[in-house]
Amino acid sequence: MNKNSPLFLAFRRFRRHKLAIFSVCVLLSMVLAVVFAPLFEAWLGVGANDVDLYSRMVGPSLSHPLGTDELGRDVLLRLLYGGRISLFTGLTAACFAATIGTVIGLLAGYFGGRLDAVLMRLTDSIIALPLLPLLIVLAAIDLSKLGLPQAIVESENVSFYRIVLIVAITGWTAVARLVRGATLSIKEREFIMAAQGVGAGHLHVMFSHILPNLLSPIIVAVTLSIGGVILLESVLSFFGLGIQPPMASWGNMLTNAQQLIWEAPMLAVYPGLLIFITVISFNFLGDGLQDAFDPKAEY
To answer: Which tens digits make up the pLDDT trace of 132-178?
Structure first.
């Protein structure tokens, strides 16, 4: 790799950000752990959803490294499978929201005029709404009354799809404003005018010339938003409106543990600690990427 290339210089700046490097290691460890959850399941010889009422709330042991919950289910396995749901929800919802925001920001910044005014007023309207009450209302909608097929309504994954959709349609505003501002600046540069001068169409200019120059801030914005999405999913699951049992997530594990906080406090500590570590790791990673992609930073 050319040592003077922007990518190499960005990597060198990122490498100096110790907290970001540590966060990458933490997040990679979490991803590997949740991906290989079936191996832990086979090693322990029990399933994540296996109920054993004779082994309720037992302490850590060789057969149950983190003990069991109120139904005798292995806590470690439920944390791993819950991590799959929480991490995948955060990544998927953040990417969908970023896609929506990128398209809206590109259209508003490139065409300007009335389209820009309408799209930005729509963005301001979404920002002005109280987020948590709005999410609770959307999550409480009865899907069977929306005319959806019964197979979808009764699917065990429907709560996951609902969370991703809700976060995507409410979380795109920050990316839209970021992309719009950057587009307004880039579209005035010489290479954009040259592309337009040789007859390039609007879509070609937006997605072949402007969008590649926006990837760095978009990646940073997505990384910073993942932690917020995981928190929102956890809050909705805590209120019973997110991921529904028996599917585990860190949020609904906290919900189940709240009534047992004095009898078995670790049932709440484990998922709460993982949520905290994951969110702060994504935030540190976002800070590191922001510094790395900043061309004004010193080498």
So the answer is: 787 777 777 777 776 767 776 667 677 778 888 888 888 888 889 98
Q: Are residues 85 and 248 in contact, defined by beta-carbon separation less than 8 angstroms? A: yes
Domain range summary for the chain, segments of one domain joined by +: 6-292
pLDDT tens digits, residue range 62-109? 888 888 888 888 889 999 998 888 888 888 888 899 999 999 999 998
Say whether 19 sits in a helix, a strand or coil: helix
Q: Are 183 and 106 in contact (CB under 8 A)?
A: yes
**Looking at the DSSP assignment, which residues form a beta bridge with residue 74?**
68
Q: CB 253: neighbour CB atoms within 10 A? A: 27
| Alpha-carbon dihedral 134, 79, 27, 176, rounded to 10 degrees | -10
CATH architecture of residue range(s) 6-292 = Orthogonal Bundle (1.10)
pTM above 0.90, yes or no: no
